[in-house]
Amino acid sequence: MTVTGIETNDLEVLISHIRHISGFDFSGYSRPSLLRRVSRYMTKHAVDFTELLGGLSEGGSVVYDFIQELTVNYTEMFRDVDFFLRVRGTIFPYLESYPTLRIWTAGCASGEEPYSVGILLKEAGLYDRSFIYATDISNRVLNTGREGIFNMNKMRGFSENYLLSGGTHSLSDYYRVLYGKAVMIPELRKNIVFSIHDLTGDGVFNEFHLIFCRNVLIYFTLEQRRQVFLNLYKSLAIFGFLCIGKRESFKNSGIEEHFKIIDSKLNIYQKIS
What we know:
Its EC number is 2.1.1.80. The strands form 2 sheets. The protein has a 7-stranded mixed beta sheet. It has a 3-stranded antiparallel beta sheet with strand order 3-5-4. Helix 1 runs parallel beside helix 3. It folds into 2 domains: 64 residues, no CATH class; 191 residues, Rossmann fold. The longest helix has 15 residues. It is α/β, with parallel strands linked by helices. The protein is 43% helix and 19% strand.
């Protein structure tokens, strides 16, 4: 066994097994990232590789839970405050002229990013003519987003991010405390739609003015990233904006010539053709 608790060859067997029993294809995922996630799952559930395969073969909730755990991404509200400052100062002033705005937060996990975007739109006076589509492959984390309920300990950290990203009020204006939890207010939730979408398998489903696909592409292989980039390009209106994570690369995406660089450090681009 490797230090991750699973051999690389075993991982290929696992990928094929999951595809056969569920139809979900992990083949486009980065192997080092997938090895770490499978290892964490095995440690958490105290199973070895043989037991893992056996449990998955039984189907049902075991397969569902396995896929859910492997596809959940870390997230927080107003992650990368300099990025959200740029969105406030550069992108939103450009979008003010549009009568309606369609915004997509792809790989949104439990909803911290779409709620962050919603708050920015509120403070820019754009929320009421905006529709935010928040998607992820994991329905379990999407349910958290739909409920809009977050741990109060996390909200304290989010409050600092909010202020550093140019917040003009208090983050507490956007949630109510109920039974020790933070519940996002209905006025912030009404224009946010949470739905399942697989970036590696599903196609274009709308034409957006702004797409956030941040800290998701790092888990995919180069070939898979190129396919995702193509779908993002097709999903973006002309002169719309595409935002990817700071650690992610736009090079070799296959769509570079169709975009103008707005901020190379923060990975913000505008579609020009």
